[in-house]
Amino acid sequence: MPTEDRRERRTGDRDVARAHGLLQRRFRRLRDCWDEDVEQDTNRLADEAVAALERLGARAALIEQRAYRQTTGATRAPAIPTTKEIP
User: Fold this and answer.
1) Which of 15, 59, 65, 79 could form a disulfide with 10 if both were Cys (CB 3.0 to 4.6 A apart)?
2) pLDDT, average across residues 47-68
3) Which superkingdom, per the lineage (predicted)?
4) Which of 66, 37, 87 is nearest to 77 (CA)?
């Protein structure tokens, strides 16, 4: 049986949600430590996580625009509605 790298299989929305949930649970546990050094480290890690998610979101938007152009011939994809705009 061939050995498969787990990282190659983690590509779906559920996997992203699972990894995000795990990170949030770890942050929650760290916030309960009430130690100043741990809090500072956690804040730095949270800042890094936010920056990484923002970079990934920007890359996803570029891919989405490219896919939209390829399928419709349009020059730009419509904006994704914010949660406030979704009924």
Assistant:
1) 15
2) 89
3) Bacteria
4) 66
Task: Give the CA angle between residues 60, 19, 36 to the nearest 5°.
Answer: 110
74, 68 contact by CB (below 8 A):
yes
Using CA atoms, how far apart are residues 17 and 13, in angstroms rounded to an integer?
A: 6
Structure-block tokens of residue 12: 């779906």
* Higher per-residue pLDDT: 48 or 61: 48
Q: Which amino acid is at 13?
A: D
pLDDT at 1: 43
Residue 60 has pLDDT above 90, yes or no: no
Burial class (CB in 10 A: 0-12, 13-18, 19+), 71: exposed
